[in-house]
Every structure is written in C-alpha cells, then in structure tokens.
Amino acid sequence: MKALVTNHSIATRLLNLGLGRSIGRGVGLSEIAVPTISDDEILVKVRAVALNPTDYKHIDVISPPGSIVGCDYAGEVVNIGKNARGDWKVGDRVAGAVHGGLYPDRGAFAEYLKVPGDLAWKPPVNMSDAEAATYGVSAVTGMLALNARLGIPWADEGKGAQGVSGNGAAVLIYAGSTSAGLFSIQLAKAAGYTVVTTASPHSFDLVKKYGADKVFDYHSSAAADDVVKEFPNITCAVDCFSEGNSTEFCANVLKNKGGKVVTLLDQGKSKTPGVQYELIMAYTVFGHAFQWLPPIGPKFEAKTSDRKALARFYESLPRLTEMVKPPPVSTINGGFDGILAGVDKLRKGQVSGSKLVVHL
Ligand SMILES: NC(=O)c1ccc[n+]([C@@H]2O[C@H](COP(=O)([O-])OP(=O)(O)OC[C@H]3O[C@@H](n4cnc5c(N)ncnc54)[C@H](OP(=O)(O)O)[C@@H]3O)[C@@H](O)[C@H]2O)c1
C-alpha cells in the first residue's frame, strides 16, 4: 500500500528541536506492506484523514525513520480479527484515531490502517467521511481533559453540573477556537457547565456557535482579570494552547478558589498557590507505554483507565453527534500531496477555526 513514511535521522530531528523549525521534508510517499491485524484488531481502508499539529511535530522531531504518520481517519472495515470487539462487519463505516508517527505499521496517512476494534467508532449515515475523520485527536483530547482528568460528567450522562451546583458550574476553555477547544466547549456544555473561553475576535462567533457562553479576547492584557470579575468561582480549566503565558492566564483565573489546569503541552509546575497543572498526552488512550526520542526523551506509562475512557467515548459517540458536532471542515485536494501541503499550513500556523481534511 501507499503510505506517508518518515525519514529524518536522529541528528536532524535533534537539530530541528534545537532550532524550533524544520530542515528538510522528513517524510515521503512509500510503498509498504498492508498492516497485519491481530485477533483483536480490524483493518480499515482509509477514505479521509484529518490533520493535527502533532503530525508535523512528529515528522520534524519525534518520529523514528520508517514510521507511518497520521492519526485521524474515517474509512471502511475490510477485515476483522476473530476476537475484535465492537460488533464490526466488513463494509461498515468506521472512524477514530490511531497512534501515528511512532510505528512502521500503524498510522492514518496510508491506504490501510489497523486499530483495536473497541477503539474506533461508527459514524452515523448522515455524516460525511470528512466530518467523521475530525473526531480523532482533538475530540479525544477534549474527552481526556474534561471527563477523565477534571471529572466533568460524560456527555451521555446529561447535565451533571446542574445537578451539583443548581445553576451550572463554570469551566474555562482557553483557546476555544482550536480544534481541541471546539470539542472541549461542546463536551463541557453537554455536561451542563457554563463555558467561558478565550479566542481572537474573528473567532468569537465560531466559539459561541459551538456553545461558549462568554468569550474573552486573549490579546487583551486585562482579559484574565475580566474573567475573574465575571466568573470568580472557576476551579477547572483546559488550556488548549499551552504556550507562552496561556497556562499562567488560566492559573490567574483559578487563583481565588484554587483548582486544576489541564495543559496540552508541558508547562512545568504551577507557581500559583492552590492551582495545579496536569499535562495530558492523548496517546495514552491507546493503552500502551511509549517513549519519545529514546533513551533521553520523555516516557509515558500505559494507562488502562485512559484506554477504557476512549472505548467508552467512542461507544457513546454515535448517539452524541447532534450535541457534539464536528468542527468546520476545510477540504484539501491532492491525496497524499494534499496531506503534506496541509501539514505545512499547520506548521506555519496558518489554520484558524477549522479542521483540515484530505480525501484519499
Ligand atoms: N497533549 C495532547 O494530547 C494534545 C492533543 C491535541 C493537541 N495538542 C496540542 O494543542 C495545540 C492545539 O492543537 P489543535 O489541533 O487544537 O490546534 P489548531 O486547531 O490547529 O489551533 C488553531 C488555533 O490556535 C489559536 N491560536 C493561535 N495562536 C494563539 C495564541 N497565541 N493564543 C491562543 N490561541 C492561539 C487560533 O485561535 P484564534 O484564531 O481564535 O486566535 C487558532 O484557531 C497544539 O500545540 C497541539 O499540538 C496536544
């Protein structure tokens, strides 16, 4: 099959890490074997893929040479392991995310991919492949942050926050117009929370359309104080940007009562008394341990509870898509070349308020 496979040496990747930019392309179209499935996996013919910043971060720095890139996909089931969970039939539509960028036989930017049967979901008939492909890393990240780490009730459990506080507790979603932010807003809303978010003014209508109750411009130096004036009791936040002073902004909002900020990139330890930072890494939902840039890079332990959370989320998702909608989709033509062009747009920070999707 055809697949986008990485080729940067460790020396180039360390140089890219040091420079904070990418030298060379680091990825090319290769002809490789169709993955062999285990008894609990299904084989998927990939029809559409969605792109994430993590794709270029893997190509430029993390991926060992020979790894298939890409996480988010939608497609069709073409083979089923004899113990695969999920009640799959050949020909079923399927979507989800895989741990792309680290293995020679697992990744979404390929004609075929393999995935455990219980870690994929069945898109409804009225949803396009392009939309279905968007419920990968970004949606999973929102779920992991809110439901698994902050203990916010699951979207299929109803209006939990209303029950607890009587009038809806508030949560801060920093950078609500990111793909992770748009899913987080919707998952918090589904749980009955009042959603306070930040975005650029050009994204205000977008985040409100996805359910944000109040949006603040993160460019304003008074924004954190403005949030506190209006919402003095917030105790939990998801920082969907996690760069520059974004996490400190969240800590300032929480400092009255204390609480937890979930971050998507490493922001070190909180310096704000009573406020804790917790880094999440969406790949822990796949249930296996992994390491980046071994032997010196960070190690991530296998987390059975995160794997269970993903299986639970994807099992419930077909019933939730009216409430948890896909982000706006921007389709890029050109198949595998289109993927490379789209990943480069992400690398250059040229994507705002939409999810890039490519049909294969
Ligand atoms: N740890 C994990 O498991 C995990 C999972 C998913 C993502 N991530 C990381 O989280 C980040 C977001 O990913 P994504 O796919 O959701 O992003 P995305 O959709 O590509 O983000 C684009 C958005 O970033 C916002 N933005 C740009 N500069 C900003 C700034 N200075 N402050 C606040 N917002 C800014 C823009 O909002 P405006 O146009 O409104 O300004 C734009 O809409 C990436 O770094 C990604 O690698 C980590």
Automatic annotation (TrEMBL):
Keywords: Oxidoreductase
Domain of life (superkingdom): Eukaryota
Listed Gene3D superfamilies: Medium-chain alcohol dehydrogenases, catalytic domain (3.90.180.10), NAD(P)-binding Rossmann-like Domain (3.40.50.720)
Protein name from the UniProt record: Enoyl reductase (ER) domain-containing protein
GO molecular function: oxidoreductase activity, acting on NAD(P)H
Organism the protein comes from: Monosporascus ibericus
Domain Enoyl reductase (ER): 24-358
Family: Belongs to the zinc-containing alcohol dehydrogenase family.
Keyword Oxidoreductase: yes
